[in-house]
Design goal:
6 helices; mainly alpha
């Protein structure tokens, strides 16, 4: 598999993961309102698994294609950091699925914060690049970073007892992540496709 294909496969796998996770977050709101079993957590877990895989593939492809610049180094580090945040979120969602809400929320807050830092590094790295579509890539990664940060804020509200507001903020953040990942994927596909 070519290095470009690895990178492009990674970015679109990440997009699929963010969409699955966002659907899961939406389901959690509905399940809360209708007093249904929390199956949405399972989708959040699966989505973050896809995101971790996508970020890892993106990092591997980017490492192989890297020109060695500092901007590329920031972007690659950001990919790996995001992947570690995603793995943390998988465990957090699984804990919540099995009824350990406080422990799961704490892991989710940490994982989303790590994801936000990783996407922020990617955005910063893109601003240092002179490649075509780097501005679009920086915008997508910035939106992703803000979305992950909003998820962490929402989860903090849930921990503090403001459940409905927290769920809404978390869900909005997950859709922002999906939008940002899609914009970044378009930019990287145009750069390397």
């Amino acid at each position: 598999m070519s290095d470009r294909l690895i990178l492009i496969t990674g970015v679109w796998t990440q997009v699929v993961g963010t969409v699955i996770a966002a659907i899961g977050e939406t389901m959690i709101i509905q399940e809360e309102r209708l007093n249904l079993p929390p199956l949405g957590f399972r989708l959040v877990s699966i989505g973050n698994g896809f995101e971790a895989t996508g970020n890892s593939l993106q990092a591997v492809g980017a490492e192989k294609l890297s020109d060695g610049s500092i901007g590329e180094t920031y972007r690659i580090a950001g990919d790996w950091i995001q992947a570690s945040g995603n793995v943390t979120n998988v465990f957090g969602a699984e804990l919540q699925f099995y009824g350990k809400e406080v422990e799961g929320l704490k892991l989710d807050i940490f994982g989303d914060t790590v994801q936000s830092i990783g996407a922020g590094l990617e955005a910063y790295g893109a601003t240092l690049s002179t490649r075509a579509y780097s501005d679009l890539l920086a915008a997508g990664n910035t939106i992703q970073s803000l979305g992950a940060a909003l998820e962490a804020v929402g989860e903090t509200f849930i921990l503090k007892g403001m459940r409905e507001l927290g769920l809404q903020i978390t869900t909005f953040g997950s859709y922002a992540q999906a939008a940002g990942a899609t914009i970044a994927a378009i930019a990287l596909t145009k750069q390397y496709g």
